[in-house]
Design brief:
Elements: H1 10-13, H2 16-23, E1 27-31, E2 36-38, E3 47-52, E4 54-60, E5 66-73, E6 77-78, H3 80-85, E7 92-95, E8 99-104, H4 106-115, H5 117-139, H6 145-160, E9 162-164, E10 167-169, H7 176-183, H8 187-199, E11 204-205, E12 211-213, H9 216-225
Antiparallel strand pairs: 1-8, 2-7, 3-6, 3-8, 4-5, 4-7, 9-10, 10-12, 11-12
Keywords: DNA-binding, Transcription, Transcription regulation
Pfam family, one: cNMP_binding
Domain HTH crp-type: 143-217
Length: 235
């Protein structure tokens, strides 16, 4: 399979031989839009290697509140934590659109990682990158809400966006509640901050909640201008 995988994804990090071996594993599966791919608390322990499409990773706390933890796209694993440690699922994964993936059992994945230590190292690196990203969100809590929303959008576009006529699109719907949960703020605050960005011409929303960024460089600058922070770096 010829494919330019995102550089930050597991498949994008692997050497060609290791990547091809991983792609040869498992059983092809498809998921319809809005279908549940992994359920929080479930005791199954397979992993899913995403090939096409985007998925949202959500968690529900004891009070019943839902938070969006991350977005996964082609080249990423979902459900790998349960496959590695055998514990119940820590989050629910929902397909944003049609998903093509590989269903990989825990024994198959563990045997592959035992053979390919470089894949195991890169899997750790991917997990570390996600933790660093979450830590950045916490460090930004004292910053103005509009700056925080702009920074989240820059990160999402750089990681998952694709070029389109006149700018960049995320390629998956994103509600204000989900954006608020990533940025660590109340939905009403996120709504106002997003409106400020939209009024400034930095972002545009489509009928299906798709986010369009006419000028990514301007969004980077906007994410720093209010507090004198450095613009988000290129990935």
């Amino acid at each position: 399979m010829n494919h330019d995988w995102p550089s930050g994804s597991l498949l994008g990090r692997l050497r060609d031989a290791t990547r091809q071996e991983l792609l040869s594993l498992g059983t092809p599966v498809r998921y319809a839009p809005d279908s549940e791919m992994v359920r929080q608390g479930a005791k199954d322990n397979h992993a899913l290697l995403l090939l096409r499409g985007a998925a949202k990773v959500r968690t529900i706390d004891e009070a019943g509140a839902t938070a969006l933890l991350s977005i996964k796209t082609g080249g990423d694993f979902v459900g790998e934590m349960a496959a590695l440690d055998g514990n119940p699922r820590s989050a629910t994964v929902i397909a944003c659109g049609e998903i093509t993936a590989k269903f990989i059992t825990r024994p198959t994945l563990m045997a592959f990682l035992a053979r390919r230590s470089d894949a195991f190292v890169e899997l750790i690196n991917v997990g570390s990158a996600h933790l660093r990203w979450a830590n950045e969100r916490r460090r930004e809590l004292p910053q103005p809400s509009t700056t925080r929303i702009a920074r989240v959008l820059v990160d999402l576009v750089q990681a998952h966006g694709r070029r389109a006529l006149g700018g960049w699109v995320l390629g998956f719907p994103l509600t204000k509640v989900e954006l608020a949960s990533i940025a660590g703020m109340k939905p009403r605050t996120a709504e106002k901050s997003f409106s400020d960005l939209r009024n400034a011409g930095v972002v545009v929303t489509g009928l299906r909640r798709d986010v369009f960024v006419p000028d990514l460089e301007r969004l980077r600058e906007f994410s720093a201008v209010q507090v004198g922070l450095p613009p988000r770096r290129h990935l």
